[in-house]
Structures are given as C-alpha cells and as structure tokens.
Amino acid sequence: MDFNKISEHHILYIITAIAGFVIAVAVRFLCISSGYDAGTANLVFVMILGIEIVLYLVLMKTIINQVDKFMGGDVKSMLFIHIHN
Questions:
Q1: Which residues span the membrane (predicted)?
Q2: In this structure, what DSSP letter does residue 22 have?
Q3: pLDDT tens-digit map of 29-56
Q4: Conformation bin of residue 36: beta by default, left when phi > 0, alpha when psi is -120 to 50
C-alpha cells in the first residue's frame, strides 16, 4: 500500500465521517436510555446520519460557491484538479 496516495482531503473526510458516526451513535444511545425500543433507536440513528450527510453537502456547496465568487471563478476547477490528482 502506497501511503503517499493519502492526501489531506482523505484524512479530513475520514475524520468528518467518524465524527458524524459518533454523534449518531450518541443520539441512538440517548434514545435507548430514554426508553425507546431498538427499532426506533435504529431509525433515529439512520435519520441522524442522513441529516448529517445532507448538512455536510449543503455546507460544502455553500463554501465552495462563496470562495468561487471571492476568488473569481477558478476555485471549482482547482479543487477538482487537486482532489482528483
């Protein structure tokens, strides 16, 4: 395995995914400790993960659009080239 292929973007994505998973697990445990059954807690877990994914995508889209306006239109192409190289 070539560890030089792991960029800082991958590390940030992994940290973000782990943080979202930990938050969803904490909410699931809170549901179970509040007296809800396992099915409801699992449904809440999946819903929290879905909400986190949507919020992350909206936030990234907003940030990229704002930086794109500020930098003059080259940010999307630079991000695409940097991420995919």
A1: 12-35, 41-59
A2: H
A3: 999 999 999 999 999 999 999 999 999 9
A4: beta
64 and 79 Cβ atoms separated by less than 8 Å:
yes
- Torsion of the alpha carbons at 71, 66, 64 and 76, rounded to the nearest 10: -40
- Sorted by sequence, the CB contacts under 8 Å of residue 56 that are 6+ apart come out as 16, 20
Residue pLDDT, tens place only, 51-79: 999 999 999 888 888 877 777 765 555 55
Q: Return the number of other C-beta atoms located less than 10 Å from residue 69's C-beta.
A: 10
CA distance 2 to 5: 6
CB 49 within 8 A of CB 56: no
